Amino acid sequence: MLEVLSYSFIQNALLAGIIVGIITAIIGTLVVVNKMVFLSGGIAHSAYGGVGLAIYLGLPMLLTTSIFCVAITIIIALASYKNRENLDIIIGLTWAVGMSFGIILADLTPGYQADLMSYLFGSLLAVSDEDIYYMVGLLVTIFMIIVIFYRDILAVSYDNEYANLRGVKTKFFYTLILILSSLAIVISIKVVGLILVIALLTIPIYIASFYCNNLVSMMVVSALLSITFTIIGLIISYEFDVSSGPSIIMASSLSALIIYVFKNIKKKN
Prior knowledge:
The longest helix is centred in the first third of the chain and has 26 residues, at about 10-35. This protein has helices at about 10-35, 35-55, 60-80, 85-110, 115-120, 130-150, 150-160, 160-165, 170-190, 195-210, 215-240, 245-269. Helix 1 packs parallel to helix 6, helix 1 (about 10-35) packs across helix 10 and helix 1 runs antiparallel to helix 11 (about 215-240). The protein is about 80% helix and about 0% strand. The chain has one domain: ABC transporter involved in vitamin B12 uptake, BtuC (Orthogonal Bundle), CATH 1.10.3470.10. It is built from 12 helices and no strands. The relative contact order is 0.17. By secondary structure, it is mainly α.
C-alpha cells in the first residue's frame, strides 16, 4: 500500500482530501448549528449549473463554479430575507433550474462527452496541482474569516435575535456563512461530488456533537474525523477498485451508525 504514495496523483488526492476535510468540518459545523443543511443542499445541486457553464465556455472548472454558486447563494439569501416562508420553494427552484441549466449546457457543448459520474459522485484521483492551490487559498481565507469574526459568527449561530440586539450585522453574517458554504461545496465536488457533499458537511459534525460542547472543539474534532474518513475511503477505493467519494461517505456513515448504536446501548444501561 505504501508504494502507491509515490504516485503524484495519489499524493494530490490525499492532500486534497485532508484540505477539503478541514474546510468542510469548519463550514459544516456552521451549517449544522445554523440549521442550513437544506439550504446547502439546494446550493450543492444548483452548482451543476456552474459546471455546465465552465464546460460550455471552456473556463476553469473550480473558479467558474465558485462564482456561479456565490451568485446563486446571494440570490437565495436576498430572497429569504423578504420571503422566509417561501424559502423551501426558492431552494427547490434554484436546485432544479441550476441542474437543468448545467445539463443543457453540457449537452450543447460541441464534441463534449458528458461524464456526469465524476461531478455527481466525485473524482478525487483527478485532482490537479491547480486545484490544490485553489483549495489551500480557500482554506486560508476561511480560517482568517473565522478568526477575525469569530465572536460575531458565534453570536449569530446560537442566538440570532440577541446578536441583532447587540448590533451585530446578522444579515451580513448569515449571507457570509452561506457564501462560505457554497465555496466549500464547490471544492467538495472533486472529493465526493454534488450528490454526496451534504453527507461530508454533516456526518463528521454529527459524530463530533456527541463529544463537543462548543463551536471550536466541534470544528477541530470534525476536521480530524473528516481527514480519517478520507484516508479510510482512499484505502478502500484503492484496495477494491471502487469510487473514492462513495467509499469516504460509506466509511463515515458506518462510523456514525456504530457510535449512534453504542450511545443508545450505553443510555439504556
